Amino acid sequence: MLALVTGGNGMFAGDLAPILEDEGYDVILCDIEDFDLCNEDAVRNYILAAKPDLIIHAAGYTNVEQAEAEPELAMNVNGLGTKYVAHVAREIDVPLVYISTDYVFDGEKKTQYVPDDATNPLNVYGKTKLEGENYVKEICERYYIVRTSWLYGTYGKNFVQTMLMHKNDEEIKVVNDQIGSPTWTVDLADGIIKILNMPYGTYHVSGSGKCSWYEFACEIFSAVGADVKVIPVPSVEVPQKAKRPAFSSMKPSIKTKNWKESLKNYLFISELEVD
H/E element holding 231? Predict the structure, then answer.
């Protein structure tokens, strides 16, 4: 069995590949140097030549802030690029896993989101990822849309690594009025393996429980024994181009670890000092 993973240079693919291999898959990691997602012929030709048994589409335009300034590019990558991948998946009749986001929701709900909840993205990034979802559902019969949130891992820039850059600071201000569910890339990968044995459809895979960015930061510093004073501030005090949902925590569709447990596991595996 051959699994083709787009976004091969990204944070998620680095942890996904060995887990797929443990499940008996041969893995092809591909990225922009292999084909341009915005070029339909390039997408089709590459995937047809690879002859995968499974496609995991993890590539995307993920810079939430920059997407506000480059909406057309973000839509071309996250929307049309996903459309092109979906067409090939249908043509060769293989399952397609599309990685999506909690930012397809507007944050007005007060309880955890479930897959059937209405979507209403607030920013360009969320809108383009929802467009990708819609193309997948429209084109493919054999698909898994997997929404995740607040992702962190070893192989890319993320909130945990950003906070650790400040572990020797005296104090730092962190937003306390946005609530979500931090998710370790390894947990997302494990979740996808489980979902591949479930009916096609839309699923949520994130760490269980919820917290604010402020609470997340406090837990990170506590875990590595850093004496940093974390000052909670409202999001209006942190100028951002993209509007974020105030509450985007999702109820996992499968059993997942509590976000605090996964954070400590990640830090331990990363060979960082943990209390």
Answer: strand 229-233
